[in-house]
Amino acid sequence: MDTENTSAPSRDQSRVSGENHPHARPHSGVVHDNARHTENFTVIGNDLIQHRELSGLAIGLACYIQSVRQGTAVDIKTLADRFPEGPTRITAALRELETHGYLRRTRERTSNGRVVTRTVSCNRPGQRAAPSEPSARRSARHADPDKPPPRKRLPAVPQPSHPHPALLRTAVDVLAGLRRRDPRLLLSATDAEHLAPGVAAWLERDVAPTAVRHALTENLPLEPLIRPAAFLAHRLGAQLPPPPPLRLPAPPPAQPRHPFQECDGCRRLFRAPEPGRCRDCRTDLLEAA
């Protein structure tokens, strides 16, 4: 007869506890049952998937566009054939992605004269793709060790129609105060000089400095801001408010209406500030004289 192994766990004890089991019902919130991908997958950043200002359709289209091979058609008609949403909704979603920098579309003319739309998908708006390894090695080989590495150009910002010096000084003050809201928004003097016209364009549109600060610091991402100046430049352009309504000049005051007077000559009624003769009688007196 076999001897029973008293150290082996019982059948009930060998089960995974329900609290740690991936299919167990959670008390609240989501539970992830994730398997590691080894093929046929795409890396998508949380800044896109959890974007607070993009619609669900825009996020879904961005993920699809980032997952397809280079050269795949992503025009409105092709996307409308691929997804159940119609061309109108897909057009609006693509405009959202353009506004937030995840998509760039330009019209170009080919060598045979045909006009085509060139679409560029950006997985991290405001940052260019890293150069390929061979080109990076060539650049490092020919770089001057005594010179600092070149800075990436910041995105363009809106420009005020009247860049008054006092307006630009107020804009610089607004930018200098952003670090009090979040230390990650500490800017260099060069970055503040580049961003100041964009802030001045907001101030010129009757937006108070406190409102500009709130718009630039509201709902900041949780991850580190590698280039805060580029982030602020994008917000200044993407969220630029419309111009204030046109203020029409006040209408001129109405002319007073004089009371009726009885003409001393012909006894007709006419309007005048005081009694006397009407226009016809005054004309007759002048002709007689």
In short:
By secondary structure, this protein is mainly alpha-helical. Among the domains are: 46-121, Arc Repressor Mutant, subunit A (Orthogonal Bundle); 154-219 and 226-238, no CATH class. The chain has 11 helices and 4 strands.
Can you characterise this structure?
The structure is a single chain. This protein has 289 residues and is mostly helical. Among the domains are: 76 residues, Arc Repressor Mutant, subunit A, CATH 1.10.10; 79 residues, no CATH class. It is 37% helix and 7% strand. It has eleven helices and four strands, in the order ααααββααααααββα. The strands form two sheets. The protein has a two-stranded antiparallel sheet with strand order 1-2. Strands 3-4 form a two-stranded antiparallel ribbon. β3 and β4 form a beta hairpin. The longest helix is centred in the last third of the chain and has 16 residues. About 7% of the residues have low confidence.
What is the strand arrangement across the widest sheet?
A: 1-2
Low-confidence stretches: 12-19, 132-136, 138-143
Q: What is the strand content? A: 5-15%
Described by the principal axes of the CA atoms, the overall outline is elongated
The mean pLDDT is 83
Order of helices and strands: HHHHEEHHHHHHEEH
